[in-house]
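Quick one - inputs below.
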Amino acid sequence: MSSDINPASSGISGALTGLFRRPEVGAFMGMVLVFAFFSYFGADRNFLTPFGTSSWVNAASTIGIIAIPIGFLMIAGELDISIGAVVPAAKMTMAIVCGFYGQSIFVGLLATFAIAGMIGWINGTIVVRTKVPSLIVTLATLFSVSGLTLFLSLMLTDTTSQALTSPDWAKALFGSYHFWGFQSSVFWWLGLSAVLYYVLHLSPWGNWIFALGGDKESARNAGIPIDRLKIGLFMLASMAAALSGVCETVLSNSATTTTNFALIFNTIIAVVVGGVLLTGGFGTVAGVFFGTATLAIVQQGIGYTPFDRNLSSLIIGVMLLIAVLMNDSFRIMATNWSSKKK
Amino acid sequence: MSKAVLELRNVNKSFGPIDVLHDISLKVRAGEVLCLLGDNGAGKSTLIKTLAGVHKPTSGQMLMDGEPVTFERPRDAADRGIATVHQFGGTFPLMSVGRSFFVGMEPTKGIGPFKVFDRDKANAVAVRAVQEFGITRITDGDRLIGGLSGGERQSLAIARALHFGARVLILDEPTAALGVKQASHVLRVVMEARKRGIAVIFITHQVTHAMAVGDHFAVLIRGALAAEFARGEKSREEITDLMAGGEALANLGADVEAYMASHAGHPPPPQH
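Output:
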């Protein structure tokens, strides 16, 4: 009996099966394609230099830190667009606590992550309790948080932007340029990707997230605390947004209250280009990682080519459409593929 | 006769003013298949949900091994060994066989906080468990559930329930969406479960499937038990007629034809 068990797929059909089961392969090939394209047209304009490389890697890191937790939420069948307001809220909290009130960075971090965690908790709790679609719930918190940030900033400091000077250790940790011009956030992005890769693909929690997105009722019947898990994922997304905000603030020594609407779309594009299914239940950390990189290469790389900057949005639009279509056909193939046709 | 594993005594269930289950008394013993037959809306789903701890009976008693039990939530029923497998297997189309088999009870390896999902073990156990039920086509634990046939999914779900120690297996229309061959696969799995001494409650409206595996039959009409009988006591036609609420289905065809002949080819209006 056990001799029939085929532990590892073998041969060409096995390799093919493996490919179909791995959405990050598609995302990786997309990234290579885009990178080759911009390398060809941008090579003589410094795209491949350390400066050119760090420009897109830095841009990728600020999106990527948030995109992976958003990918988790999408795998679990939810969405969070309130991050567009959480980032400025985190930046202002940091700048007001440390810059305006002169508290230590440590206190600022504590306040920032506490507030972000609370916003995530509110998002999650409302979604879990009311069954209102998370798009609407987080749209409401997006506007609430953005309004509150503006109101409180004006009330407390009488201005909508605030300067912040950080000690050297905080600079090095969150916001300075390292070798090749890489920002500190690049290392946070890499670290967070590694940790979240472990969570999604290696730890038992990852199985819960997939199960939650695959079939909520069956997941509940299997004894998974789905409400707590969902609230936790919303908190993770908010706190990741806060981390991205902290890095930006410490780097630029200032914060403004402006809501970052573009970031909302960028994270969703990165996640979808990374092969996460809009319908939930499937996706990989590596895919989202490559998706983020692809997006950043197009957005930053266009400046190193002779093409008009505005064309980057066109490329991204087309890319997104292709990705969605590919994801869908992947889903159909993956669910119909059997390793042994008899 | 051995003692009943699960027994209902005069169970009533109403949602507000609406009576859904009326005075239901049922027993199922170990190694026995109880077929619960009924048309749509007869109260089958409510009965299953009551057994599985989703609903609490309004009045009446539930007993396991002769002791009264109350289930506050589905988890309580699951802890007592009552497992429900739904029509589509309750599985996750985009998860692998191994991963979905162990959802909520993942085997891990490693030390301390760095526990890692043991994929090899999960795959091997899942594949072995389902192969023991005669589904030998599943050989690769990495295969996605969505790539399995409906019958294989059902069989996998049943194998999963039994692997985790189910004593009472509630099958909610497991063959409803399946073709003839797939359905016979599932029926064979049901027989294997019975042989292992599991008490099976098999809900269906397909009389042929019920008669293939059932030891006891109960017909549910509008929330009440209309008939209860053992294997071989009633013919297929009698059971079908019972399910249709006592109206003889056999005469239906002749009646319709007569009506159509005298009404310019129009079928008769439905009767209640």
